[in-house]
Amino acid sequence: CFMCDDPTHVIKDCKFYNDFMDKGWIKRGDQEKIYFKDGIFVPQGGGGETRKDKILEYAKNKGWA
Predict the structure, then answer these.
(1) Rounded to an integer, what distance in angstroms lies between the CA atom of residue 64 and that of residue 56?
(2) Is the residue at 51 inside a domain?
(3) 27: CB partners within 8 A, 6+ apart
(4) In angstroms, rounded to a whole number, what is the distance separating the alpha carbons of residues 51 and 57?
(5) Residue span of the structural domain in which 51 resides
(6) Residues 51, 43 contacting (CB under 8 angstroms)
(7) Residue-wise pLDDT tens for the chain (65 aa)?
(8) What's residue 30's pLDDT?
(9) Is 5 inside a domain boundary?
């Protein structure tokens, strides 16, 4: 999963992805890329951090969470 790095499912079946979409924190843009609701691109995970972690941190910093 490109959201949480769980090998047992894909992003469309990820509970975190679907929760973030339902909350309106993220949206799909051109070419299926993921963006925050304010239009900033959500980079893939790296450096020991998943995309889920990046979204949670960004949402907290923005006061969404």
Answers:
(1) 9
(2) yes
(3) 21, 34, 35, 36, 37
(4) 10
(5) 11-62
(6) yes
(7) 999 999 999 999 999 999 999 999 999 998 889 999 999 999 888 888 999 999 999 999 999 98
(8) 83
(9) no
